[in-house]
Amino acid sequence: MKFTRLACLTLTLSASAHLFAASEKSQCGSVTLADMNWSSATLVAHIDQFVLNHAFGCKAELVPGDTMPTGASMIEKGEPDIAPEFWSNSMKEAIDQGISEKRLVVVGKTLSEGGEEGFWVPDYLVQEYPELKTIDGVLKHTNLFSHPEYQDKSAFYGCPAGWNCQISAGNLFRALELDQAGFDLIDPGSGAALSGSIARAYERQKPWFGYYWAPTAVLGKYKMVKVDFGVGADTEEFLNCTTQADCLTPKATMYPPSPVNTLVTADFAGQSPEALEYLGKRSFTNQQMNELLAWMEDNQADGEMAMEYFLKEHQAVWQFWLTRAQADQVLQALKRL
């Protein structure tokens, strides 16, 4: 009789626990996530969708997004609920105002180190000439960086025309007086052409010097060294002059990290504390993301394929973002794929 009562009590407690867990999960409800139109953002959006659905019982749906329209819609309309990867400097004033008006909440860093920009040289070249880690070293070896068209000039590969980084790269080219040292600022014409110039240099083990950014598939495939200007990052100078087309007297400054955060609407922030905690923990280093983007490019993978690869092959990374029970739910769902 005692055993029967104990068994009944155990079953009752177990059922209550499951009902409580289901109740907690059901609080998440319907959720919309911005699926931005670049590789790292669509990867993170698919990861979040899968985890929210299977670890927290959400009904997560991906909706098309891009930085400016998504930011504006979240502030003005309260939708989508989540922007998994938002480069905040793109509309800093509006985002800051949305936060101050309690319409938006920054819950965590998508990229723990922020987006990275700089002037780069190949690692194999630095192995031969260690001084190339600094801009002074580059200026001492201008003859290494032969121009594809002009024998009397050295090549610096800038940012493609029409991109925001064309302004900053051009201003820093002037600030560092690279033209006076014999460098010609080359417009690669497109992002593909710029990455292609790095790939060709690497295949031939030739010198290369120019602008690039992370996280990218290119920096996941090819080991590059960021050139130190010897002046640190002056954020005020960068925002007020380096990034401005009408900057007349730019000064040398390293690129400050670009904040890359996870934004949610204020309504969603109060909807599911457990899901919010996950989003606050979910973060990638640039090296991790570089490698994932390189895998995506090599395998011609979309966000869904890359999500499955990441969750199956990098469990040691993502399980720290969840409780044991939540991680088990994700693992069970992965087995059903």
TrEMBL record:
Signal peptide residues on this chain, from the entry's feature table: 1-21
GO cellular component terms, A-Z: ATP-binding cassette (ABC) transporter complex
This protein's UniProt keywords: Signal
Name of this protein: ABC transporter substrate-binding protein
Residues annotated as domain ABC-type glycine betaine transport system substrate-binding: 30-313
Molecular function GO labels: transmembrane transporter activity
InterPro entries (alphabetical): ABC_Gly_betaine_transp_sub-bd
Annotated source species: Endozoicomonas montiporae
